[in-house]
Amino acid sequence: MPSSKASADTALPLTLELEDFKGDFSFDALFGGLVNELLPDFKEEESDSAEGGDSVPNGNLRSVSGTGTGGVPLFPAVDELLSLFKQSCKELVDLRSQIDTRLQNVKKEVNAHDTKHQRTLGELEKGVDGLFDSFARLDSRISSVGQTAAKIGDHLQSAESQREMASQTIDLIKYLMEFNSTPGDLMELSPLFSDDSRVAEAASIAQKLRSFAEEDAGRQGVTSAVGAANASRGLEVAVANLQEYCNELENRLLARFDAASQRRELSTMSECAKILSQFNRGTSAMQHYVASRPMFIDVEVMNEDIQVVLGDQGLQSGTTNIARGLSTLYKDIAETVRKEAATITAVFPSPSDVMSILVQRVLEQRVTAILDKLLVKPSLVNMPSIEDGGLLLYLRILAVTYDKTEELAKGLQSVGCGDLDVEGLTESLFTVHKDEYAEYEQASLKQLYQIKIEELRAEALQQQPEITGTISRAKAAALTTSPQQQISVTVVTEFVRWNEEAISRCTLLSSQPSTLAANVRSVFTCLLDQVSRYLTEGLERARESLNEAAAMRDRFVIGTSVSRRVAAAAATQAEAAAAAGENSFKAFMIAVQRCANSIAILQQYFSNTISRLLLPVEGAHAASCEQMGTAISNVEGAAHKGLLQCIDTVMAEVERLLSTEQKTTDYRSPDDGVIPDHRPTNACTRVVAYLSRVLEVAFTALEGLNKQSFLTELGNRLHKGLLNNWQKFTFNPSGGLRLKRDITEYGEFVRSFNAPSIDEKFELLGILANVFIVAPESLASLFEGTPSIRKDALRFIQLRDDYKSAKIASMLNSIMTES
Prior knowledge:
The chain has helices spanning 27-35, 39-51, 78-179, 199-220, 225-263, 266-276, 283-291, 294-297, 299-310, 319-347, 351-374, 390-415, 422-429, 431-434, 437-463, 473-479, 489-509, 513-555, 564-614, 620-661, 682-701, 704-726, 733-750, 756-768, 779-785, 790-797, 808-818. The model is unreliable at 1-12, 52-70, 222-232 and 466-484 (pLDDT under 50). It is mainly alpha-helical. The protein starts with 26 loop residues before the first helix and ends with a helix. α4 (199-220) runs parallel beside α6 (266-276) and α16 (473-479) crosses α18. Keywords: Coiled coil, Exocytosis, Transport. Residues 44-64 are annotated as: Disordered.
């Protein structure tokens, strides 16, 4: 920007241009360009003043006019700068006006261009819309032309197909006319039908001709009778000749197929199979191939099968050997089928159909022949003996053959059987056996049970000791029961093992849950019957021993007016009867214990094995539980009767001991008033010793509520028996003390019963004994202390030896009156 320095009175000639504001504009640079020309003069003057010593302190103020001391201006260029700034402002205003004018012009030009642009865009949009419409019409036209071309192509293709069909029809008619010659005359046929290299083509044409002739004959069947007669007569000749030719051609192909099969020429076999597939969809060829397999026509193969499975011993070789033989045979069959599958896949166009026929033939012929030899259904009327295996042998062989045949079926299924239902076909092979399976299983279990019981009886008879003397063999057997006659947990375990084996067969042979539940229930019911019957009969035998002991005990009861020798002999026999009763008691307790163990085994078996098989079927589990409850209840009923007899046996011996050992002087000593005897009486000692000895086995054999009920009943009977015994004696005070000692002894023993009610009764007996000890005048206080014993006390007071002399009766009457 050019500028010149002028005097203070003239304005600075400034010219600001628009270029100065373009680009990277800086106000500092613009301002510096305006004032830098004036500032150097001021800087020089200020420098000269500083050299002359005129310095102005920093703190002094200078006037706006730029004058200082002595009238010298401090900033002489102020006026020039003011003029410069004013001029600059004026030029800037002019520049802004120019810019505004130019901006207005530019806006007008932009609006004009924008209007023109909008007009152009509108025209372009109209053109584009028209272009799109043109494209749409063109596309529609192209589509129409394409459809027309496609229709033309379809017509052409249809026409070509019709032309080819017409040509083929003409050829077929020509061939048909050849076959419509004299019946049976096939010598003048076209070379096509006699050329071995064109057998496939000849077969195809022959099948078409036969189909055409048969369809035409069918159509003619609904026309007029005359026309039908004329048409059918000609078509019958053609159809007969075609059938004859097809049969001849098929036989020729089968012969070639067989020859190639013997030479293992798979390519030739495949070619023949493809041609034969045109005859009845190849069914005859498939069946012919399967029927010609050696395993179906070679008698030696069938004989070897039976030899592999049964060996030289036949069915008596055992299920293990039969299972091993079946596994070997079925592996050989599966391997043979697998090899045939490879050939079939390479030869036949539909190998799955051939495999279906082959597997069906294997199961229906080869496997069925083996099953007929193995599964000979025995008679349920004349059952085979156990020495010959019994019904169990048949059932075991049935299970083994079913299991192994199922494995074979799965193996054949994995090889490939087409649409053949291998599982259903295999099931059908065993239908005749499975229909009556449950009956045979029950009959087998009954047979095993019967044989087992007979064996036990035979063993008991063999081990029965030889007994001579006055006691017969039957009585001795009842009194000295041998272990073989007693209940055996081992035998019950064997029953369960039989049943478990039968249940495993039920699970194998029953495919449906409902059928399985029904079979399991019937088999388990057999076990319930067996266990219930065996245990009940065992308890009854033990009860018979108790009855024999009771009869023997009653037989040697004698009166008081007998000789000493007779009494001694009777006492000896009574001792023997008591020993027999004790042995019978112990034997019955052992029987009850074994019954409990057997029932526990039965319940555990039901819980572990039977329940899970019955739960899926509604009502089956509950019904079996009810049946088991009934069976156990029958056993418990027999045990309850026997336990009551045991109590009778024990109490009979207790009463015998009391009657023989309890002396009158025990409770009425003539030395009353001297030092009392604090020992229990001999009768008490003998009774407690007997009870301790005989009940030892009861404590071990009985458990839970059975034990509690038995001991409570025995305690009540013992309490009653002791009361009855003591009422036979009279008591003085010393005898009362002796009685109280006996009661203490009895009470300490019955505490082992763990029966609070019995303990309470014997505690009251101890209190009751005080009626013999206290003075007559103190009896009233005894009643007041324990009113619950009043009834028994009144009866016992009468046993005091001073009852009459002390006039206790009148005293008691006054006491009762006052109360």
